[in-house]
Amino acid sequence: MLAPGEPGTGVLANRGPLRPGYHGDAERTAATFRFVDGVRYAVPGDPAELTRTATSGLSTAAPA
Length: 64
Hints:
Blueprint: E1 8-11, E2 14-15, H1 26-32, E3 33-36, E4 39-42, E5 47-50, E6 56-58
């Protein structure tokens, strides 16, 4: 998790109203929907980069 204004690379994550998970697939649900500091996120695994100007972009390269 990056702090506000902190540039870096990682994976996309989304919070807010999220679906309960994958029906009948607890392993896939646990891998995609994760808790960070008590907040539930959907983490599809797409590589991304955040710049100092708070713009983000998808990357085709996996994060190191």
